[in-house]
Design goal:
about 40% strand, 6-stranded antiparallel β-sheet, Beta-galactosidase, Chain A, domain 5, mainly beta, about 10% helix, 3 helices, globular, 30 strands, binds alpha-D-galactopyranose, single chain
């Protein structure tokens, strides 16, 4: 009798727990409570699934991709992006795991530039420079999210309205980022941005990939190809000098598949400045249309990720600032256990008239499409 009463109570408590944490189930995806911000606002985790069994999870805090599960050559599904277990970790992190970085992904020298004849001063948050949108960038704000119908597949649209003056940026900017998971295992990101005053906009996606699916492995065995004949070399503060550097006969040459670790410790000045790879590759044949930018292959699992983008640049960052202090998904992320391939305009472009422009004017629409496709080999 007692046992029955206990069972009943447990079922009741379980039911209440599930109905509190489950937010919404639609044919397009599921959502559940991920955590609450200190001011009480709820952060929700959304799940997109495709017909091939792959799954992506996204939270509306920072538009962060918290997990991306894709098959290996034996059909084993594993998570291939670094991340945390709790909202607090995402609030406190300085790694930019999985987020949308913005308004300006990457660095602006001294956080300063001239726009329409006026000097703009942004927040300084990286030495003497501005990085990834400032102290409270797009990675540290709550976005509006909703499942949307998209021909690409199950999709989630996230919207953030950045007020005029936020982190020093002029103009109120509205950015819509749509994440889709197609049946061809493409994780597709489309961006659409508008402003009410002339401003700059250059958002990017900041997932750290480890295609082995085992986060205690480094990414040094991953083989990388980047379709680029040049990089934008940087100074010690990782600000582009404004010149182009031909990658021929340097450790920056990834025009054919090369293991990331093969030349990463060479005494090459650019490598020393970046403490490894942390540079912008100038993609060949940029014409504003979607093109293959890079391929990343992990030999043990057979996973191959192909990056397509309509952007002119690709930042390849080899996780050089990971140091074991960040823990999530049951491991402490050690040095170079994840790498980012961030499609974008070139760093510091507001101060480099020869670089493609990132200026956005009222009436114009900013667009970006970047696709990470997962196959096996
Ligand atoms: C970027 C930068 C790196 C580093 C990481 C975040 O990709 O290029 O230098 O700041 O973000 O740790």
């Amino acid at each position: 009798m007692l046992n029955r009463a206990v069972c009943f109570m447990l079922v009741l408590i379980g039911g209440i727990f599930i109905s509190c944490t489950m937010k919404e189930d639609t044919p397009m995806g599921e959502s559940s409570l991920f955590g609450k911000l200190p001011d009480g606002r709820e952060v929700v985790q959304y799940t997109l699934r495709n017909n091939s069994g792959s799954v992506v999870k996204i939270i509306n805090y920072g538009a962060v991709v918290t997990s991306l599960v894709v098959p290996d050559r034996d059909g084993k599904f594993q998570d291939v992006v670094l991340g945390y277990n709790s909202l607090r970790d995402y609030e406190n992190c300085t790694t930019y795991f999985g987020c949308i970085a913005g308004r300006y992904g990457n660095r602006i020298g001294k956080g300063k530039f001239t726009l329409d004849g006026k000097e703009v001063q942004l927040t300084i948050n990286d030495g003497e420079n501005h990085l990834h949108g400032g102290k409270v960038g797009f990675n540290k704000v709550l976005w509006d999210a909703q499942f949307v119908k998209d021909s690409a597949g199950p999709s989630l649209a996230l919207t953030y309205v950045s007020p005029d003056g936020e982190e020093g940026y002029p103009g109120k900017v509205t950015l819509v980022v749509t994440y889709s998971l197609t049946d061809k295992n493409e994780f597709r990101i489309t961006y659409k941005g508008t402003t009410d005053k002339t401003t700059i906009l250059n958002p990017t996606h900041h997932s750290y990939f480890n295609l082995s699916g085992i986060f205690t492995n480094t990414i040094l065995n991953h083989e990388l190809m980047i379709n680029a004949d040049a990089i934008t070399p940087v100074d010690r503060g990782l600000i582009p000098t404004g010149k182009m550097l031909d990658v021929s006969n340097t450790p920056m040459d990834f025009r054919s598949f090369t293991a990331v670790g093969k030349r990463i410790n060479e005494p090459f000045e650019q490598i020393r400045f970046g403490k490894g790879y942390d540079h912008n590759w100038v993609l060949n044949g940029y014409n504003g249309k979607i093109q293959k930018a890079a391929e990343l292959y992990e030999p043990q699992s057979g996973r191959l990720m192909t990056v397509y983008t309509d952007q002119p640049g690709l930042q390849f960052y080899s996780g050089n600032f990971l140091n074991g202090n960040d823990k999530g998904k049951g491991v402490a992320y050690q040095w170079r256990t994840g790498l980012c391939l961030e499609a974008q305009c070139f760093p510091d472009s507001p101060n480099k008239p020869d670089f493609p422009s990132v200026t956005l004017k009222p009436g114009e629409v900013y667009h970006q499409t970047t696709i990470y496709q997962f196959t096996i080999r």
